[in-house]
Design a protein that fits this description.
By secondary structure, the chain is mainly alpha-helical. The protein is built from 8 helices and no strands.
């Protein structure tokens, strides 16, 4: 009976663990030590699944923040450009809006996630004031950019909520949990199943099925 390859992808290890636990539970073997081993493997499997979800939310959050940052930079560049246009109506509108933006500054993108969200919300509220409506309409593209920034901020807040929900259940990354699970499988789970099968001929089918499960995991084609 082979061991699980340590270089397997996180998702493949999670799928193997889930399938292995299910197979051993359904085998109906009455063995107290095996029960404890299955319980531990099941716990690690669930822990890994949660960590995978959390890692994904981190990636989604970073992506949402980058989109928000880019729109802030675009807005700043647009206002600075319009402010030097030799048409008074345009330049004056741009300068008034730029003055509002500069209250927060380009460095807003370097703030922490929570701090930046608070500042973006305040900036959007300032720009939504009735007295800036005409200025925004005078500058082509500025209104659309502000609207996109508002949408990006809403998206970021939604992703942030997902992150906090996932992050509240586990602190370790999926990669670290995977290493822990693979070590447990190779050092405890698989050797014990191998021993049980060697001592009990009636478990020959389980031996074949479990070996096949390991083989499939190592080639990345495990099905739950």
């Amino acid at each position: 009976m082979k061991k699980i390859k340590r270089e397997l992808r996180v998702t493949n290890v999670a799928t193997f663990a889930d399938a292995a636990v299910k197979m051993l539970k359904e085998a109906g073997i009455e063995d107290a030590k095996l029960d404890k081993i299955i319980e531990k493997a099941d716990s690690l499997s669930k822990k890994l699944t949660t960590a995978i979800k959390r890692d994904k939310t981190v990636s989604n959050l970073d992506e949402a923040d980058s989109k928000r940052d880019e729109l802030l930079r675009v807005l700043a560049t647009m206002l600075e450009g319009y402010a030097v246009v030799p048409v008074e109506k345009i330049s004056q509108s741009a300068k008034r809006l730029l003055a509002v933006f500069l209250k927060y500054g380009r460095q807003i993108t370097a703030e922490s996630y929570a701090r930046e969200s608070a500042l973006v919300k305040s900036l959007l509220e300032d720009l939504s004031a009735q007295n800036f409506k005409a200025d925004i309409e005078n500058l082509t593209g500025v209104g659309e950019t502000i609207e996109k920034l508002s949408e990006a901020e809403e998206d970021f807040r939604a992703k942030s909520a997902e992150y906090l929900k996932a992050g509240a259940t586990i602190e370790e990354s999926a990669t670290l949990v995977k290493k822990e699970l693979v070590s447990y499988a190779n050092d405890t789970l698989i050797p014990y199943v191998k021993t049980l099968c060697a001592l009990d001929e009636s478990l020959s089918d389980l031996k074949s099925e479990f070996s096949a499960l390991i083989e499939k995991a190592n080639t990345g084609v495990v099905s739950k």
